[in-house]
Amino acid sequence: MKNIICDIDGVLLHDNKLIPGSDKFIHRVLEQGNPLVILTNYPVQTGKDLQNRLGAAGINVPETCFYTSAMATADFLKHQTGTKAFVIGEGALTHELYNAGFTITDINPDFVIVGETRSYNWDMIHKASRFVAGGARFIATNPDTHGPAYSPACGALCAAIERITGKMPFYVGKPSSWIIRSALNHIQGHSENTIIIGDNMRTDILAGFQAGLETILVTSGVSQMGDIEKEPFRPNHVFACAGDIDVV
């Protein structure tokens, strides 16, 4: 019985609309009893938020199946020394950090942590840059530069701080294999018995490849057949959409 790690956007949903067949695929996986992690780089929504989002599209999944870059960031930081963090991000990220025992502060933080937020401003850039330049460790939930319709994402928000300080953050989310290992620990799973399903060669498939997982690319999202040739690695399987997957 293989573990399944499945991306959301481009695999299960387009914006908030169901990609036809993905509901049947997920429900079949749950009925078969495969351990399932629905994994997203987007740190703004809690597991409950994501459960509601997929439920509204007709995919019914337990809240415990969801794993986000905010959860993985909190998991990463639990393995580090220091308990004070200056955070640029939304409530779901600070919630996970509070649960992990962190103090959110702008007084001598050990870490500067950046995730997606629409309230990004000059004061945040100034403080974050000052703290990073002064030795605070720079952590980011994910390296994505933009979302739908070129909405700024975490990597873009980090760019200003990088340029000012000359320091790059550690990116927790895909394609980092850290988030894959963290998600597997969440279900007590092992890489050699896990399949990752994604729509993006440079995030989902690269992360899976680097973590030693079996990989499935679906061409219902970012990467198309022509994009496979542009990378030096290959997915193990390619399907038009999740509903077509017959190797699980």
Automatic annotation (TrEMBL):
EC number: 3.1.3.5
InterPro entries: HAD-like_sf, HAD-SF_hydro_IIA, HAD_sf
SUPFAM superfamilies (alphabetical): HAD-like
Molecular-function GO terms, alphabetical: 5'-nucleotidase activity; metal ion binding
Record's catalysed reaction(s): a ribonucleoside 5'-phosphate + H2O = a ribonucleoside + phosphate
Protein's UniProt keywords contain Hydrolase: yes
Domain of life: Bacteria
GO cellular component, one term: cytoplasm
Cofactors required: Mg(2+)
Coiled coil feature spans: none
Keyword Magnesium: yes
Keywords: Carbohydrate metabolism, Hydrolase, Magnesium, Metal-binding
Reported function: Catalyzes the dephosphorylation of an unusually broad range of substrate including deoxyribo- and ribonucleoside tri-, di-, and monophosphates, as well as polyphosphate and glucose-1-P (Glu1P).
UniProt family annotation: Belongs to the HAD-like hydrolase superfamily. NagD family.
Entries under PANTHER family matching the protein: 4-NITROPHENYLPHOSPHATASE-RELATED, HALOACID DEHALOGENASE-LIKE HYDROLASE DOMAIN-CONTAINING PROTEIN 2
Protein name: Ribonucleotide monophosphatase NagD
